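A reminder from the course coordinator: this example appears on the midterm review sheet, so study it carefully.

Given structure:
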């Protein structure tokens, strides 16, 4: 298995992903800020650097690594538009600049089109363009909202989503902008890491939901269903 380099390894998705990947036998290197080394799960190799500055971590990326980019603004909202440019877009700009020699890029984008969060979507679309421009095989995941610890308020929307899926005119949008759980996201990310895509593969909300449960499986899992665009 190729080594894995994770940015955002101490975050909402990153810590759980690093833990699962290590348990499944991967060599995991995780980019952390100075002083955050102890926040990583045991077994991960801490790489101290600045996610917004490629020069601080590019030399530490192992050859032929799978790079998983998870850096982003916590709890995104329309009020944080400047942060999307400063953090979300600049961090993937740095990661793609540092990715020379990588075998696979895994990027968490966002479901689109959508009627809200335009600045956030614009930053993530620009990030997707940067990933594609590298020419490196890539997997782009497009969740809308990831439910989990500290991210539970949208559970109140579940009945509304169920109703919208019954309406033909709303069905596609409800599926594309549906809610996923953190466990589903981790499963889809692990499936991406343990695959060898040709070109760029896009994993949308239905495919994220279809990923196998990594907590019940100790061996490499098959790819989540995906489309290519």
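Designed residues:
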């Amino acid at each position: 298995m190729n080594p894995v380099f994770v940015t955002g390894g101490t975050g909402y998705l990153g810590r759980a992903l690093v833990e699962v990947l290590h348990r499944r036998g991967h060599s995991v290197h995780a980019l952390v800020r100075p002083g955050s080394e102890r926040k990583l799960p045991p077994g991960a190799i801490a790489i101290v650097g600045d996610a917004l500055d490629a020069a601080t971590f590019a030399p530490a990326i192992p050859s032929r690594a799978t790079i998983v980019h998870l850096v982003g603004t916590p709890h995104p909202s329309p009020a944080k538009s400047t942060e999307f440019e400063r953090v979300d877009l600049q961090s993937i700009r740095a990661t793609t600049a540092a990715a020379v020699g990588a075998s696979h890029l895994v990027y968490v984008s966002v479901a689109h089109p959508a009627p809200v969060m335009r600045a956030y979507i614009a930053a993530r679309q620009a990030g997707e363009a940067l990933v594609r421009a590298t020419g490196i095989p890539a997997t782009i995941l497009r969740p809308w909202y990831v439910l989990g610890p500290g991210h539970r308020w949208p559970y109140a929307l579940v009945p509304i989503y169920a109703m919208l899926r019954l309406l033909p005119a709303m069905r596609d949008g409800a599926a594309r902008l549906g809610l996923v759980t953190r466990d589903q996201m981790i499963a889809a990310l692990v499936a991406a890491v343990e695959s060898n895509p040709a070109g760029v593969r896009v994993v949308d909300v239905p495919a994220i939901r279809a990923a196998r449960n990594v907590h019940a499986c100790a061996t490499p899992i098959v790819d989540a269903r995906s489309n290519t665009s």
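Strands lie at 4-7, 28-32, 45-48, 66-69, 104-108, 138-141, 145-147, 179-181, 200-203. The first helix runs from residue 14 to 23.
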